[in-house]
Specification:
single chain, Rossmann fold, 5-stranded parallel beta sheet, 4% strand
Amino acid sequence: MPASSNHLAEAMSAAYDAGDMARVIALGEGAAESNEAALLWLGLARYACARYREAASAFASLTRMQPQMSVYWNNLGLACRQDGDMAASEQAFGKALALAPDDADVHYNLGLLHLHQRRWVLAKQTLMRAVALSPRFIEARLQAAHACYVGGDNEGQQTMLAGAAGWPAQSAEQALILAAMLSAQGELDIALATLARAQLPEGAGADIMRLRIAAQRAALYERGNQLDLARRQLQQLPLQLLDRLPADDDARAEGWSAHAALAMRDGDCAGAAALYSRMLGLSLDDQHRARAAFGLAAASSRIQRHDEVWPALRTAHAAQLNIAQGIVPELMQPDSVPLQMADRLVDRTAYHGWQPLPSPAGRQPVFVVGFPRSGTTLLEQMLDAHPDFRSMDERAFIHDLIEAMEMTGQHYPGDLDKLTAAEAEQLRAVYFRRVAQVVPDLGSRRLVDKNPLNMLCLPMIMRLFPQARIILCLRHPCDVLLSCYMQSFRSPAFMVLCSSLQRLASGYAHAFTHWQQHVEVFAPQVLEWRYESVVEDIDTNLAGLGRFLDLADPSPMARFAEHARGKGFISTPSYSQVTQAISRRAVGRWHAYRDMFEPVLPILRPAMQRFGYTA
C-alpha cells in the first residue's frame, strides 16, 4: 500500500476511535475504490451513522476486492439486514459461513436475521449452533432461548438460560425479553432482578423504556399472584400517562395490557375489555395481537357480551396461526394431526408379550391427566395443599423420556417390550433427576406429576410405574373445547389444534379413543375426577380421592385456594382461578355459544355418552 494510502487509513482509524464519524466519512468518500483499509473504515462509519445502504455499498466493494474474507461478507450481511434487504443479507451470511463455518459470530448474526424473518425453527438451530461453538456467548444464548420460547421448546429454553441469574446486565430491550422468558419458567425473582439491572438507552428513549419495564414488572407481579405489588407498580404507570405517550405502540400496548390484567382480577371486566379493544387498534406483532384478542374475548365473556367474543377469538387464532406457520408448517394442512402421540398404540397382544420387570423401588408418582382445561390444575393444587404430596407444576418429563428412548434408536411404543431392567431403571433415574431439579425438597412426600397430555403416554407410564395411581380429570367436552378455544397456548401444535372448534373436537375425540383403548389393554389404577361433581360437592369428592390415595385425612386439600395464593407462581393458564374458592361459574358456559357447537356435537357425542354427559 502506498504511503499516502497508509496515511489515509491511519487518519480514518484515529477519527473512528475518537467517535468522529463525519470526518471518517469525509475522508473515505474521496478515497480510491482500490484502497481496502479506507473502504473498511468508510463502511464501518456509515454503519455507525445508520447509513446502512451506503455501508452495504462499501462492504460489497470489499467482498469483490477480497472474496475470501469472511468478515467482509459478515459486515455486508449486517448492513443489508439493517437496510431491510433480507435476501441479500441471508446470501452474504451464507457466503461468510461457507468461508468460516466455525465462526460463532456469523451463526449469531444469521440467527438474528431468521428471528427478524419470524423463521423460528431456523433461528433456533442457527443460534444454538453459535452457542455450541461459543458456550459463553451470552447474547447468542439469550436469542436462542427466545427462539425456543416462541416455538414452545421449554427444555431448550431452560438449557439456554441456565445460569442467567449471573449474566451481566442487559440492554433494556434484551432485559424485557429475558424477564419474560424467566417468568415463564417460574423464575420471578430472577426476572425482576433482570429488569432492575436493565441498561437504559440514552436520550428520550430512556423514558419509554422505564414505562415498558414498569409495565412488565406489574405484569410479573400479577402473574405471580402478588396483586398488591402489581397495583403499586401501576401507580407509576397511570392510564393518562399512557394516553399521552408519543407514538410507541409497544409501550402503550404493554401498559394497557398490565392495567387490563389487574382490572380483570378486580372484577372490572368492562374496563379490561375497553383496554384490550384499544390495543387491537395499534400496530402490533402477532404475539401481542393474539394476547389482546384473547383478553378481549375473556373480558367480553365475563360481562356476557357474547356477540363480541367470537370475532375476538377469530382475530386471536389468526394471529396464532401466523406464528405457528413459521414453526410447524407441516401441521398447517387441514388433515394434519397435531396430537401425534395419539396415533401410537399398544394392542393387547403386544402388551401380553412384554417381559416382566422388577418393581421400582420407592413410592410411585401420582399422575394427573386429562384433556387440557379439564380441571387438572385445580386438582394439582388440592393435592399439593396436602402435606403428604408435592407437585412440580406442569412438566413434560414423561414425554421427554419417550424422546430419550427414541434418540437411542428405539421405537416408541413398539420397543417398550425390549426394555431391560437396567434400561428401565436408567429411564426412571433420568426422570427423577429432572424432578429433583424442580422440587429438590421432595423428601418423603409423594410426587404429583400433573401434565394433561400424559394421557397419551400411558404405555410409558405403565412400563416404568406399573402401580402408579392415575387420576383422569373429566369435564363436559363442550366446556373443555370452549375453554381451550378461548385460551392462548404457547405450544405451536396446540395453536394449530385450537384454531377451530372442528379441529379441537376431532383432537379431543382422538385423544379419548386413544386413552380408552389403552385403559382396556393396561387396566391401570384410575380414578375419574369429574369437575361438575367436585364443584357441587367438594367434601364427598375429596373423601373419595382420599380413599383412592390411601390418605387418613384428606381435609387439608380443601384449603387449596389459600395454598395456591401462598405459592405465587403457577405456570398454567388457571393460575388466577385456583387462588379463589370453587364455584359453578365455569359449568355450562358453552350454552351461550351453542350455535357454534352444533356442527361438532356429532364428533363429541361418543365421548359424552361414555362419560355420562348430555348435549
